[in-house]
Design brief:
The structure holds 2 protein chains of 2 kinds. Chain A is 34% helix and 18% strand. Chain A is an alpha/beta fold. A 9-stranded mixed β-sheet of chain A has the order 3-2-4-7-1-8-11-10-9. A two-stranded antiparallel sheet of chain A has the order 5-6. Chain B has 2 domains: 138 residues, Peroxisomal Thiolase, Chain A, domain 1 (3-Layer(aba) Sandwich), CATH 3.40.47.10; 198 residues, Peroxisomal Thiolase, Chain A, domain 1. Classes of the chains: A alpha/beta, B alpha/beta.
Chain lengths: 388, 353
């Protein structure tokens, strides 16, 4: 049996902020859900099932919060699933929601991913000392900085490449009214002048800690006919690899390369850089743009990534515009960040991205990763119904 | 819909696991048992999905190390739910239904003894008005039992009968952590623990893990003489608010049973962590007196968090494999007072696509 076609017909997100003290967790989710339903021209009554995603429960201090949220999310009396796959969770959640439609089980599925990080301190929630385990002190930045150093060494990248990414994404965010950071006047020079946090990662090269949510309405082919601009799902993929295998390449993980290969094959794409019109790639620290460009096959794995970034190829008007929304570097409600990437990719192919729209975008990539660069979730969406 | 069957099952249940707070060490031998049952290696598994809880493990990303137990080079197609094994099975069943894969191995783990379980579970409640009062699981179940007693929906004797039958059946279950039947009179003579509940009305705090193997069509028939075909699989959730729902009922359980189709079920494994909850579930699932309930002893004999629901499906599958029954049912619950419920109906006969 083949997969049933599925499409995104509703996308909603919150205004992401450091602290959304004006809303509860339920209110935060509803802000995104209500916008997605409005976009889809639906109400909660039209929804068959709900899939919730978020990163660790310790971030808000509630165990399995979807249970108390069930009623306010409109899930009472419906099937409710809760996905948690580390930082990739927003993407994985969208994929699980898609599979409910692709499996032919449901016709209209609502999915929401959120994080209300101001309820606790995410950096330290990630750094709980665990007996007999290597400590992850000082959060994700401290964990990933050695990977970035290794990339620089391997690829011979000039040290200002990260700053190019940060300046680009922060300026892109100025065109996105929902973005957390609206830092006017960010330049490569200003990024390079910012405080060094985890060498070589400077303050302006790191993602913020945000409160925010993203919701998608994913429907079957019949329901999608009512939408003027459905974003058809051309391929989805999830891959995971172990944390502690000594042979792991943490700079360019096999799970990432395998996932990309499987995704491009599913979506019938042979040359990503020529066939993908916009990419929303999970870049929590600036250097991950060139790293993932290589791993995903947009550039050769011998420094092609940083060369593409340096040439301006990933800017709004470049060959492969990356993170036109401002990306994770401008908004990072962790659990929602992956779904924001998936949703922003869908906005592009629906021609609904507003001021950060890439002209004529027909196919886009949504990408998320998590853990110690070991969990990957990706999808390709297109303006046209897939033929494969 | 594709025909998908349960073709492998392995479990561990114990009072106190002498090992890491995540129990992931238990997974390696469980996977080994699944490979033995199917003749597969991990490369034959198309999709992996696990269920666990960070709060139970007392740390973020507790499932991450479980992936190491798979031995993951090369990488795997894998997902995780912050839910019981039964819902991990649901996600894997979906994945098979999309046609992307033909086989899946789902697993779950949890070390309830690492903290004070009834208090940990209080963190599941509505955080703004309920959790600050720290109403623990046993007390909430006690309130539910009291509501039913006062309403005449059940009596203490019916609760004791559930316990006596469960603990008697558990004598034949090597994994049971509480076992040994008695008599209704003797059980009722024991002291109250959380009025109106006695200790034996409450599932024992249990550590453990479990794994289930799913396969579609020919793949299932290749590895299993009598595959347990999934003929119905559905789950629903109710609002949490304890003050606004009728605690003597479980609408989500009723709805899941109706969607899965429970007619003709001969054996039902119900995930009822408290004796009176079995009485609610039997009503909601429409199970008559002719249905054998919890031949494994059920959750009252062992309730490893995050795998106990899935274990019910595994136990139900074993009855199909052995030829003891033609149609069985596995049920899982989550949340306070039967808030969320899943029903899986298994058949010896393949429905045919």
């Amino acid at each position: 049996m083949a997969k049933q076609p599925a499409a995104v017909v509703g996308i909603g997100q919150t205004h992401h902020r450091a602290k959304r003290e004006d809303v509860s967790m339920a209110g935060l989710c509803r802000e995104a859900i209500d916008r997605a339903l409005l976009d889809a021209g639906m109400t909660l009554d039209d929804i068959d099932a709900i899939v919730v995603g978020k990163a660790p429960d310790l971030f808000e201090g509630v165990m399995m919060p979807e249970l108390f949220l069930a009623e306010s999310l409109g899930a009472a009396g419906k099937p409710l699933l809760r996905v948690h796959t580390a930082g990739s969770v927003g993407g994985s959640t969208a994929i699980v929601a898609s599979s409910l439609v692709q499996a032919g089980v449901h016709k209209r599925v609502l999915t929401v991913a959120y994080e209300k990080q101001s309820e606790s301190n995410a950096m330290w929630a990630l750094s709980v000392p665990v007996p007999f385990n290597m400590p992850v002190h000082a959060g994700a930045g401290g964990y990933f900085a050695p990977h970035v150093r290794s990339y620089i060494r391997r690829s011979g990248a000039p040290t200002h490449i990260g700053a190019i990414v940060a300046a680009k994404d922060r300026n892109n965010a100025l065109r996105n009214p929902y973005a957390h950071l609206h830092n006017e006047g960010t330049t490569v020079e200003s990024v390079l002048a910012s405080q060094m946090l985890w060498d070589p990662i400077r303050y302006d090269e790191t993602c913020p800690s945000s409160d925010g949510a993203c919701a998608l309405v994913i429907v079957d082919e019949d329901t999608a006919k009512a939408s003027p601009n459905p974003a058809w799902i051309h391929g989805t993929v999830m891959r995971s690899e172990a944390t502690s295998a000594a042979e792991r390449d943490q700079v360019n993980p096999q799970a990432s390369r395998d996932a990309a290969a499987a995704l491009w094959k599913q979506a019938g794409i042979t040359s990503p850089i020529d066939e993908i019109d916009a990419a929303e790639i999970y870049v929590p620290f600036s250097w991950f743009e060139p790293m993932w460009l290589e791993s995903l096959g947009f550039a050769d794995a011998n420094g092609g990534g940083w060369r593409l970034t340096e040439s301006g190829g990933t800017a709004m008007d470049g060959k492969i515009p990356v993170n036109c929304s401002g990306g994770v570097l401008s908004s990072n409600p962790i659990g929602a960040s992956g779904m924001l990437r998936f949703g922003e990719a869908a906005l592009q192919v629906r021609g609904a991205a507003g001021e950060h729209q890439v002209d004529g975008a027909r196919k886009a990539l949504g990408h998320a990763y998590g853990g110690g660069s070991q969990f990957f979730a990706m999808w390709v969406v297109g303006a046209d119904k897939p033929t494969n | 819909m594709r025909d998908v069957a349960v073709v492998g099952f392995a479990q561990r249940q114990m009072e106190e696991f002498d090992g890491s707070p995540t129990c992931v060490e238990l997974l390696v031998p469980l996977f080994e048992e699944c490979y033995e049952q199917t003749g597969w290696t991990r490369k034959d598994v198309g999709f992996w999905c696990s269920g666990s809880s960070d709060y139970l493990a007392g740390r973020s990303f507790s499932f991450v190390q479980a992936v190491d137990a798979i031995g993951v080079i090369p990488p795997v197609n894998e997902s995780h739910v912050e839910m019981d094994l039964a819902w991990a099975l649901y996600e894997a069943w979906l994945k098979i239904q999309t046609g992307e894969v033909d086989t899946a191995l789902v697993y779950a783990f949890g070390k309830s003894s690492a903290g004070v379980l009834r208090r940990t579970l209080a963190l599941q409640l509505e955080p703004y008005t309920m959790t600050p009062l720290w109403p623990d699981t046993v007390s909430l179940a006690g309130l539910q039992a009291r509501v039913g007693l006062d309403a005449g929906a059940w009596d203490e004797r019916a609760m004791a009968e559930v316990v006596n039958r469960s603990l008697t059946a558990a004598e034949k279950n090597e994994y049971a952590v509480r076992k040994g039947g008695s008599s209704v009179e003797e059980l009722l003579a024991r002291p109250l623990y959380a009025d109106p509940l006695r200790k034996h009305d409450c599932a024992p705090v249990t550590d453990g893990a479990a794994a289930i193997v799913l396969a579609a069509g020919d793949k299932a028939r290749e590895v299993c003489d009598r595959p347990a075909w999934i003929s119905g699989l559905a789950h629903y959730v109710d609002p949490m608010s304890m003050g606004t729902r009728d605690l003597t009922r479980s609408p989500s359980a009723e709805r899941a049973a109706a969607a899965a189709g429970t007619a003709g079920v001969e054996v039902a494994e119900l995930h009822a962590p408290f004796s009176h909850q079995e009485l609610i579930l039997r009503r909601e699932l429409g199970l008559g007196d002719d249905v054998a309930i919890n031949p494994s002893g059920g959750a009252l004999s062992g309730n490893p968090m995050f795998s106990a629901g899935g274990i019910r499906i595994g136990e139900a599958a074993k009855k199909i494999w052995s030829g003891e029954a033609g149609r069985t049912l596995g049920h899982a619950t989550s949340g306070p007072a039967l808030q969320q419920n899943l029903v899986c109906v298994l058949d010896a006969e393949q429905k045919g696509a």
